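A brief tutorial aside. Many learners find it easier to grasp structure tokens once they have seen a single protein encoded end to end. The record that follows does exactly this for CRISPR-associated endonuclease Csn1. Read the sequence first, then the structure, and try to relate runs of similar tokens to stretches of the chain.
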Amino acid sequence: MNNLTLGIDLGTNSIGWAIRDITASDNQIIKKGVLIFDKGVGEEKGVEFPKVKKRTESRGKRRNYQAEKYRKWELLDFLIKHGMCPLSIDELNSWRKYTKKEERKYPQSQSFLNWLRFDFNGDGKPDFHLFGSDKHESYYLFRAKAVSEAEIDKRVFKDNPEILGRVFYQLVQRRGFKGRDEEEAKTMLRGSKDGMTKGRDAIADYIKQYKSLGAALYHYQKEKSSHSEKIRIRQRYNLRKDYENELKLICKIQNLNNDFYSKLHKAIIWQRPLRTQKGLIGLCTYEKNKRRAPISHPLYEEYRTWVFINNLKIQAPEEWEHSKYLIQKIYPIFYKSGNDFSLSTILKQLKKDGAIVNSGYGSREKTKVLSAKLLKNFEDIFGENWQNELGWHNAFLREKQPKKKATTNYSFEDIWHVLATFDSEEKLREFALEKLKLSEEKAIKFSKIKLQQGYATLSLSAIKKILPYLKKGFIYSKAVYMANIQKVLGTYEVSSAFIEHFATEIDVIYEEVSAKRKLNNVLNGLFKYELLAEGDYHLGSSQDLDVSDYSLIKQKLINELGEKTWEETIKEDQADYLDYISKEYKSFLQKPFQAKKGAFIAQPRIHQHIFNYIQEHYQVADENIKYLWHPSEQEKYPNASSYEKVELKNETVYINENDIDAFLKKKPNAELEGISLKLLESPEPISKGFKNPMALKTLHKLKQLLNYLLQTNQIDAHTRIVVEIARELNNANYRIALERWQNQRERENNNYKKTIEEINKESGTSYNSEDKNLIRKIRLWEEQGKKCLYTGDTINKSDLLNGEHFDIEHTIPASISFDNELKNLTLANKDYNANVKGKKYPTQLDNYHTDSMFNTRSIQPIIKNIEAVFGKRTVEKKIIKKHGKKEEITVVKWSKITDLEKQIDEYVKKTSYASTKEIKDVFIQKRHQLKFDLDYLKQKIQTFTVEEYKAKWRNSKLRDTQIMTKYAVPYLRTVFNKVEVQKGNVVNIFKEVYRVKMVSDKKDRSKHSHHAIDGAILTLIPKPAYRDEIIKKYQLEKDNHTGKTYHEQPIDWHNFKPIFIKNIETETLINNLKDYRTLTPTFKKVRKRGKIDYDENGKIKWAKGDAIRGQLHGESLYGAIKQPKRDNFGKIIFDDNKKMQLEDEVRLVMRKPLLYAKDASSPGFKKLDDLEKVIVDKALFEIIKKQVVKAESFKEAIEKGVYMLNKKGEKVNKIRHVRCFDRLKYTTAVQPHKHTFVSDKEYKQTTYAQNGENVYCLFYKGNVKGKEERTISIIGIFDLAKLDIQDEREFFEIPHFNSVVKKKTQLPLCAVLKAGQKVIFYKESVKELAELNKEELSQRMYKMYQFESDGRIKFKHHIISGSNTDIKKEHKEISSINFKEFSPLLRISSGGWNFAIEGRDFEIKLDGALIWKF
């Protein structure tokens, strides 16, 4: 289908598409549509997070809770067997053993409950008297006495083993924290930043004095408490090692043997190591069967160091051999104890030695360079000879058969593995002392080594192959080409002479290919110029090129290379270039016209040329090219498989050709249709290195759409695919940074609007403050320091907007640069621009470097004026070596650019040693924001300093270089032959060229249909050769300042009308793809001891889950109470038996912290009135109120502390929590848990919580006395979980749900509705819908988004985009459907439910086609 073009607009949660058929007679846009789906990430309060995050966090909490139970069960089992707990094994088994459909039973024996209360004699009180203490003691007394050396205390435990058992049980209940990283460890020592949770440092002296954590807490509480306040000791970070030491000490003092201690340690302290995440690590870019290396590995640190050294392009002093100089003089500089150091350190060494830097780094002294910190640690700990001692050089040996390790000594890789896996400094120290035989000092240093987190893009194997060549001084690209050369050649050894020779040949090939590409660009430009020209210029076989042809060739060549570069090219090369182009151009002109269309020259590939050289000189097989690594290797996708079309039970399915035999064997009734086609497969590349969930979700949905279009024969592999990709599909940190940067620009724009209003007020004008062109003028005015950058003239407010004296101009003419963005615009003196600048570059103007005369007056140098934008300019001279000769160059710096570079380097440094992911993300986002500003200034300064403008720079403005494009293009090319990507600014240009740009972009963006419009525009954009010519004409019109826009008809569409595109807005049915996965069972691979389990046929075993998906209820749990009845005087009413009388209403309450709320999201209360409205105990409120009144403010009173008072009015205990009523109703709350100890009051027997989401809405409909009646019943996810159903269709079979009584009549269940489901409203009958056209159907189509408890349903028009909250700000919810003009939001009761339901009455296919089911 060469006549078809498919345009695709990819967004974060949308795909707009359109198909154009150039053979269609009238409207060539034959199909269009929009898919809307949920983002691949979740979002809450504007913050993105992975969708699995909440599920993972909840699962983590459940597992921690369950792990605590397992520890308790194991400990209790041990204690029971040793007579230390009054519980039987049967009672324990009733609690710990699970029987399906039966609840576990918590032990209820009185002896066990007394044991938990430290009541060992059954008198109802804790037995503090055993240690001579009174009833007011703390339970920590028992732990303090358990480590007491006093014989009297030891005797108590010996005579009463159950007391010691209870002490162990207290240890297992809270076994302390273990820091996951350095920052968390610091928090545990120092306490939380808000001071709410104390750290270990607060009791460190007590632990030292009293030997154990329990004893320290006991004495700390005793000493710190006062008569008015007893210090709490629960809210603090206690370290697990302190619990471990306490357990060890108790066992020692109580004479318990090592076996006893080991079993207690396993039950109380031991923690199972985390499962390996190795399977989630991406694959190497070059070796697709190997995992990527950790960036903390010593070899990666070495590799990273040498890549940077070689990128400096150092020219060694004349007396030094290049690689030796780098190894002996530069490499050692990287051995630093800090994370990084300044590049100036290296530059000083180079200057001292007389070496030269031939890269841009020479002028960036402040750049932060990552040090080889781990290697430095190895040197400090194992000595200068550490590489020989730890087998460093053995890692690079390449042998036919890898040898087994011949020595028992630890290698550097063994040591790194220990550092990466051991989870405590103490274990590392012990390993260093016992295994490595280090001194105490070095063992401590070893234990404090911290490794970076993350993974490289290469495997360790690839690094080992590349690294030796990097150390020889080869730049990365050369090193990669040579790294796997042995396998290309089929040998295991190559000589040094071969390496040197091959490296030289690579340089020659690079230069040849680079030159050939430039010349081919010129030729293809000439071919394009000729094909676009009117008529066919043809040369006969005996004719030659004329003077005009040679002149054209030379001009095109200069345009490609740039005037300055052409002048610097030696005459012999100039002649060779002209001769090559002339011959090829002549050959082209002698071809027939049709042959000319296919005559464009493909660009040579360096990779292929290098292999050709190898093959020519060393006779290697063709297939060995797969072993030659490419330095710019892209993510690869496997070739698409063919799928066979199969008919099965009146349904069409497509089966992979590799699985077809097994499928037909399993389904003998299936019939092969004899049709085979290639379909898109998984969008994950082979390396599995694409970790962007939002982009992957979009690609998965694109796969669904394109495969459907292929299967329905609407497109094929020959269809031209043109894609536009949203910038927001980059990674999360980039998206957040971009959004913040754009928000900042929007705030600036709002200020500029105010400036326009001020000008109107001061000058009596009426400029539109919403005019984007005027806002852009104000921005440039502010950016330029309110002056013209060409003349230095001050631009007054009164002259700013009228366009008479100053106007916007293109710094590099738009017809040359194709750049109409802000970075190429300047607010300039209109007279100067028209009469002096014209189409020149700034560097070509007389007053660029010096003062000049203009209109009989002196004007300032441009180079000085632009300091207003770029900051102060500094210049220095440097010597570099070029083509073997020393050459002096000028290095120019601009202070604003330099400052931004410094800030970015600082954030790179901060990112490298950020303690948590959250902090690291903040630094990355800030770095992105700074980079946006830096990129803008760098691109803008280029427009003012460029001396020649090369064609390739213009082409880069049209090329999409996003990360997403890197994956999307090769993925689509697995099936489609022609795939192009267009940038958003190109799409906008062609909207104007073809007269289809909407009047208001803002209004357009509020409708999903704009995605389909963009898709249609993409189909109109011609191939690059013609596209560039149109853009040039468009920009030329801009340059001429005519105020007009260049227009033309789309190629191959002579009767095109803009209305064809504009009508898409009203003709498109938006297909909202909603994932209803609540009842979808989960599957996971069965594992044994962490390894995947297989059946007898070698197939993976899968376990199927039976739980539903989703959060069943809110996380906050409530209690239920009834308020006492009161008389008219507010006194509580009692009955004749002096029993308090209670109200009938049950209300839900929750304990809330008595804190001052800093903001709406903080816990606590903002003012006293807020507390009064919700507090349960009014008497308690009066106590609080009295103390607040005495203080200066509510905030001061709460922060100082509010106390309970005794009869004398003295402070007794601090009030930390108060019971408060909640808005949640008793009748609507769910009851997630039953209490273990049941109250005699029914409403107090369970906990209460907010119901989870409403999953289903059961829609009932039937006739009652000749009139159709309707009603709904809402099913929440908590209730759904209790129903134990597998499919929503089961509602039609369950008597309780398949009908409902209304007005004494049974109404049958009509449909199961879900949020996001679409409906189409009708007037009289559902069948009338089949007669409507697309525009009329679009008018009536809505999607349901909320079901209300009062029986109303909320609808949102399918075409409207944006959040419901934002839409409600502009549009009211209408209570009835308007068939003449749609309303964005509806809120309709049962009387207006005249609609067809998606799934029941109609179906929308992926291509937007409506299938009626009535």
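Self-check: Confidence is low (pLDDT under 50) at residues 954-961, 999-1003. If you spotted this yourself, you are ready for the next section.
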